[in-house]
Amino acid sequence: MADIGTDHGSLPLWCLENEVVPYAVLSDVNEGPLERARQRMDSSFVAEDRYNLRLGSGLSVLKPGEAQTVVLAGMGGELIASILDEDPDVAETVQRFVFQPRTRAGHLRSWLWEHGWRICAERLAKERGRLCQIFAAEKGPQEPYEYPDIPEGNDPLMIEFLDKKIVNIKLISDNLLHSKNAGDLKKAEALQRKVSALEQRRDGLWKSRHS
């Protein structure tokens, strides 16, 4: 596996220590985080021939076919999509990507669908009170979600995720309704329809869990 933007190297270290992968590439565009990752790996019990640290940007640190799984986590969805765009020769040889976009998850999902990738697994996780979307993608066609920014499935944290999304969308919609611009009013109407759909989904999940 390769962890692009590895920061402290926590994920590849865990994967190596728990025998999830036989070999890992840890990369970062900045020397400071990469040095912290190096120190962490050096202080572990993982053999040096099971990992490699590389300074560089995005997928440029990899050769085509070098990594079966590539992780891009902790950055914006637009940035992740641009990283995939910059090195298509490498991206096309990856069997599975794992993403954790901090923002614009919908933008990333749309990019994946347009470029022949399908979402094969999704999870929600809570980190310091913040809900994070995590999803994996493999090659293959897929029908896009009605709302790309909203995960599919019945994750244990889905009701909480939908509650927060509904509140945020209502705030935006309410502000747009005060506008005299016709375009803003149309956006508000679209957001109200989205709120209604998300409320129905949330209520359905709640009923299924408490029936």
Lay out the secondary structure:
Blueprint: E1 2-4, H1 10-17, E2 24-28, H2 31-42, E3 51-55, E4 69-75, H3 77-86, H4 88-91, E5 96-101, H5 105-114, E6 117-127, E7 130-139, H6 158-177, H7 182-210
Parallel strand pairs: 1-2, 1-4, 2-3, 4-5
Antiparallel strand pairs: 5-7, 6-7
Helix pairs in contact: 3-5, 6-7
Can you walk through the features of this model?
Helix content is 44%, strand content 22%. The protein is an alpha/beta fold and 211 residues long. Strand 1 (2-4), helix 1 (10-17) and strand 2 (24-28) form a beta-alpha-beta unit. The longest helix is centred in the last third of the chain and has 29 residues, at 182-210. The mean pLDDT is 96.
Order of helices and strands: EHEHEEHHEHEEHH
The CATH first-level class of the largest domain comes to: Alpha Beta
CATH homologous superfamily placement of the largest domain: Vaccinia Virus protein VP39
Low-confidence stretches: none
CATH fold assignment of the largest domain: Rossmann fold
Helix share, percent? 40-55%
User: End-to-end span in angstroms?
Assistant: 42 Å
Task: Note the quaternary state here.
Answer: single chain
Across the major sheet, the strand order is: 3-2-1-4-5-7-6
Structural class determined from secondary elements: alpha/beta
Our count of helices gives 7
The total of beta strands comes to 7
Looking at the overall shape, the CATH architecture of the largest domain is 3-Layer(aba) Sandwich
Rg, Cα atoms, Å = 20 Å
The total domain count is 2
- Average pLDDT across residues? 96
What portion of residues belong to β-strands? 15-25%
Overall geometry: elongated
Main pleated-sheet profile:
7 strands, mixed
